[in-house]
Amino acid sequence: MASDLPLAGDPSARFLPWAAGAMVFLAALVLAGALLAESVATRWQSDLSGTLTVEIPVGSATGDGDAEARAAEALALLRRSPGIADAVLVPRARLERLVEPWLGIGAHVAELPLPLLIEVRLARDAAVDLAELGTRLAEAATGAKLDDHALWLAGVASAVQAVEAVALAVVALIAGLAAVAVGFAVRTGLAIHRDVVEVLHLIGARDSYIARQFARHAFLAALKGGVIGLSAAIGLLALLLHGHEAIGGTLPLPAAHLGPIALGAVASVPVAAAVVALLAALATVHGQLKRMM
Amino acid sequence: MVRFEDVAARYGHGPEVLSGLSFELAPGSFHFLTGSSGAGKSTLLRLLYLALRPARGSIHLFDRDVAAIPRGDLPALRRRIGVVFQDFRLIDHLSALDNVALPLRVAGAREGQIRDHVAELLAWVGLADHIRDLPPTLSGGQQQRIAIARAVIGRPSLLLADEPTGNVDDKIAVRLMYLFEELNRMGTTVVIATHNDALVARFAHPQLHLEGGRLYHVPGRRPAAPRSRRHG
Q: Is B67 within 8 Å of chain A by CB?
């Protein structure tokens, strides 16, 4: 059965898929970016969970003897302490590699007064009093600072939350713009087909009968455009992730990837866009038809 | 069936094109609506098929005051009214069959029933060979018969036809009039707007005559339906 309204021939039939495609492209990129940021933060949190870092400063700042000797005191204290599974001194070469991305290859890193770092791994389910441990470390090794990464992780979490909030706002804005675009296209369609709509009314069609035809058209147009937009977004994301992997060897970033749920969320953007288009079309048609007798 | 009380009509904020219309149509009656071009026949029909609200007065349709009918109840009321528009108002991209099927589809009838019923009616109006044709490919007379078939497919209680024989030859016009009379005999109230004096004379139903924005009642020479009727 053909649709009573020849919407497929309208200018909106060409406009809507492109508009939906562009919006889905942007929304999918923004959503994927936010989910990648969350994935990186989660990975960082997971990597640092159950670990501590002890920093032994060097140079005149401490004014208290040889750094290696203080590091040995700190290591001895840590290995005696309950709840500590392991404590190892980070080799100088690894420290230099860590700062290399920020200072550049070939810089005179060896001449820098890098602090000594001790990596500490906590025993599983250990309840360690970090404040007390920090005080004892400072007494055993002057200037020793205990870092449980809480401050840094809190900063990362805040940054990720901010990114997610901005992403959500952008996606909501895009959805709003999509609804406005669909509303505009539907109003144009109603104006073009005013005669047919009036005939349908006069032979007893309910508003919902007419609205369903516009809604179905908007849904399919948005879905069609959305699939194209998503494909483009996936292509661009693949390029960006490939680029990230290419520079991953020089920056201390964990590998970014999207899990099945995140991939599902991104893949559902065209469907969400189609649903937004459907609802916007229904609301617009009902709103407009109320003005007719 | 229909009662107008001191009804006036206007378009937008323009002057009243009809005023002081008071009449009743009894169930099962058959009336011609006559008057010269521009007398307001189409406007009166628009009031009857609920495309225009009266500027003044009250219209009762199927024992309900039109002004008090909630918008959601209008579709059900309109399904009881069949309309043959002067310009047919067929949907060009739909086949003859789909055009005629529209009233049944909007009423939610089953597709199987629709096909059989519509094909039968199209055959009856002489368009059995054109059920798949699009209206723009058909002659004016053929389009008019599709419009008539669409108006009667739902067995309306009230049939309104605006110049339904304007585009057909006399032979077809008489045949269509017989169709309207057949529907009338089955209980449908019929109002046919026409300026075809020969047709009015031949079938001799009572007339609602519009002149100068006023309505005059001209009794018919013989009853078209066996039941009694009254008109105001």
A: no
